Amino acid sequence: MANIKPFCMPKWGIEMTEGTIAEWMVKEGEAFSKGQVLCLIETAKITNEVEAEYDAVLKRLLTPASEEAHPVGALLAVFADAGTSDAEIDEFIAGFKPAETSVAAKGGGSPPAPAAAPAVAAPAPARPPQKIVTNRAISPEALKLAEAEGVDIEPIEGSGRNGRITYQDVVQAMRPERAASFKGSAALVEDTPEAFASPLARRIAAQHGIALAGIKGTGARGRISKADVLALVKPTTAAAPVFGAPFELVANQPQVQPFDKVRKVVAKRLTEAKQTIPHFYLRVSASVDALMDLRKTANLVLGTKASINDYIVKAVAMALVRHPDVNVQVHGDAVHSFPHADVAIAVASPKGLVTPIVRQADRMHIAQIAATTRALIDKAQAGKLGYEDMDGGTFSVSNLGMFGIEQFDAIINPPQGAILAVGGVNRVAVEAANGDIAFESRIGLTMSVDHRAIDGAAGAQFLQTLKGLLEAPEGLFA
């Protein structure tokens, strides 16, 4: 029997329900070896490289690269030995059954049916589908609709990747053209060509229905100027402008940009988190003069470029280990506590906000944390984060201080139980030990807490420990 193996949409994590083939690195009929990158698959927040687990040939490519999402378990391609016949591949595909996942089992391994088309003119009585032969890039569902409705696809401009015609493009082509409704010509005062007037004066006169004939110009050689015409404009109830022509409204049309895939997922997750998690907030500020001085010295001694945020991540990790009731995840009615701190850091990337994780940050020294966060930030900005970089996490740190933000409230990143919002460093006046006024650098910290799992006292004790570590930073090297 031929050695035939299916290649299906993988499932990375319990929350993944679908993925998109961004690019194939191997062509149909091409052999590949173990470890070679086969394709790029995009999920809600990441693009993963899929590597071959064995040597084989891509005998049949069923799902080309496109912007269409396919459910987990959907059959994407078929791998086999070089000598496998097409008949054997066809027989394998015909008998293939997807894995019993919550998505693929419902979808039968094929892409979900497109949403119902918006209301269009009532279709004519049923007619046999018209076969369309074209070499243009068009999705299977779009081609099926065009054939069923007799739509000419040649004049359609595809909105998909590389001009691919999508289902929505065909739906739009089926809409009837709107008939223009004309209201007649504008009533303008008759121009007087023989009048000696500037172009701007003519335009203003036409806008306000003023005849140029009979106006005595005050410009050079009796030319009618803008001021001469404006002097005859009837005043309105609004105050007259100080300079130039009267104020007029101009078009202020919005530029509509629908949510992309990542933004849709982020919006959905944040909405669910805010609606289902009972947030409460704890605020504190910490003096960081000693931390900034120690950072300069430590970076020179260790030969690293650790940022203030790296030291905050270290302090957070140490405080979490000392307060395990804050180092938690919430799963339904159960609270999962962890012995080590996996701290997620919020990073802005081309794909939106992502939260890669510094694993077991409590066991790392500052130089290791700095190197790890730098590598994660570089991967995020290059769009190279993998699922393993973002899966899990026991606590999040979101720092907007570098943008001049003094204080803000962050939304908890489920299933984590809390998130720390870090503001900027500000010089503030304080009372010195001798009673005089002195200035010190302080940083604002706000912790958003899931009240289902973490009590107010536990959160407050955690923040006090964190504040102590930041104000006496020698303890970070203990």
Features of the shown structure:
478 residues, alpha+beta, 18 strands, 21% strand, flat
Give the topology, please:
Layout: E1 5-8, E2 18-24, E3 31-32, E4 37-42, E5 47-51, E6 56-61, E7 69-71, E8 75-80, H1 86-94, H2 104-107, H3 140-149, H4 167-174, H5 199-207, H6 226-230, H7 261-276, E9 279-287, H8 289-302, H9 308-322, E10 328-331, E11 334-337, E12 343-345, E13 347-349, E14 352-354, E15 357-358, H10 366-381, H11 387-390, E16 395-399, E17 418-431, E18 437-450, H12 456-471
Parallel strand pairs: 12-16, 16-17
Antiparallel strand pairs: 1-8, 2-4, 2-7, 3-6, 4-5, 6-8, 9-18, 10-11, 12-15, 13-14, 17-18
Helix pairs in contact: 3-4, 9-10, 9-12
Notes on the structure:
The chain has 478 residues and is α+β, with helices and mostly antiparallel strands. The chain is built from 12 helices and 18 strands. It has helices spanning 86-94, 104-107, 140-149, 167-174, 199-207, 226-230, 261-276, 289-302, 308-322, 366-381, 387-390, 456-471, and strands at 5-8, 18-24, 31-32, 37-42, 47-51, 56-61, 69-71, 75-80, 279-287, 328-331, 334-337, 343-345, 347-349, 352-354, 357-358, 395-399, 418-431, 437-450. The strands form 5 sheets. Strands 9-18-17-16-12-15 form a 6-stranded mixed β-sheet, with helices on one face. The protein has a 4-stranded antiparallel β-sheet with strand order 1-8-6-3. α3 (140-149) packs parallel to α4, α9 crosses α10 and α9 (308-322) packs across α12. The radius of gyration is 33 Å and the shape is flat. The relative contact order is 0.09. Residues 102-125 have low confidence and may be disordered.
